[in-house]
Amino acid sequence: MIRQVNDSDFLRIYELGSMLHENYKNVYNLTDLLTRGYFHVLCYEINGLVVGFLSYTKLDHMVDLVDLVVDPNYRRQKVATNLIDSMITVLDPEDKIYLEVSSQNTNAISLYQKFGFEKIHTREKYYGEEDAFVMERVTFYE
Ligand SMILES: CC(C)(COP(=O)(O)OP(=O)(O)OC[C@H]1O[C@@H](n2cnc3c(N)ncnc32)[C@H](O)[C@@H]1OP(=O)(O)O)[C@@H](O)C(=O)NCCC(=O)NCCS
Questions:
Q1: Ligand 1 centroid vs 98 CA: distance in angstroms?
Q2: Could you tell me the pLDDT band of residue 142, with boundaries at 50, 70 and 90?
Q3: Residue 140 has pLDDT above 70, yes or no
Q4: Cα separation of 80 and 31, whole Å?
Q5: Which of 58, 91, 52, 55 lies closest to 70 in space, CA to CA?
Q6: What is the arithmetic mean of pLDDT over 85-110?
Q7: Which of 51, 65, 99, 131 has an alpha carbon 20 to 30 Å from 106's alpha carbon atom?
Q8: Which domain holds residue 46?
Q9: Is 36 domain-assigned?
């Protein structure tokens, strides 16, 4: 089941988020961010356990996919695919979707390419020695 997060999910989201950013909890104060109209978090729940989440911002028609993490025990089961699908479903056809990903994260890049994202910019040595790719979803809605 995919749904919006609520207060009781925050600890689990911080736990999953720390797989992506060491100090996730300090960077993303969900209590505060979710009171703002532009920040959204979708989570994927299986038998009461949140196994993955996706966060994004939407301001006017600019959407940024901020974070996407799936519990290692639940990967390769289309959890991320379904989360991205759910996000796209609630967006407007004219929305432009962007994201940033490490150039070394080939798994995520492959996932994003399946959704029609293409690299539009490289931020050199953005993560230490690693470059970051900025990607935009160029696929048009049918
Ligand atoms: C990247 C991540 C979100 C993918 O989640 P997932 O639920 O396992 O992804 P899905 O099952 O929906 O996979 C969809 C596609 O992504 C690609 N992919 C995902 N994991 C992959 C892997 N380990 N190896 C190769 N391709 C992979 C494949 O193209 C896959 O399609 P396929 O299974 O038909 O081959 C997950 O591995 C993760 O949480 N990684 C750590 C955090 C991270 O890097 N997040 C992205 C930051 S921008």
A1: 18
A2: very low
A3: no
A4: 24
A5: 52
A6: 96
A7: 51
A8: 2-137
A9: yes
Q: Ligand 1 pocket test: which of 111, 115, 126, 133 has the largest number of ligand atoms within 8 Å of its C-beta?
A: 111
- Check residues 127 and 58 and name the one with the higher pLDDT: 58
Q: Is 132 part of any domain?
A: yes
* Ligand 1 centroid – CA 126 distance (Å): 22
* Rounded Cα–Cα distance for residues 110 and 12 (Å): 26
Mean pLDDT over 6-22 rounds to: 95
Q: Is residue 9 part of a domain?
A: yes
Evaluate whether residue 72 is within a structural domain.
yes
pLDDT in tens, 39-69: 999 999 999 999 999 999 999 999 999 999 9
Label the pairing between strands 130-137 and 39-46.
Answer: unpaired
Distances (CA, A) of 99 to 7, 30, 67: 26, 20, 9
The total number of structural domains in the chain stands at 1
What CATH number does the domain containing 57 carry?
3.40.630.30
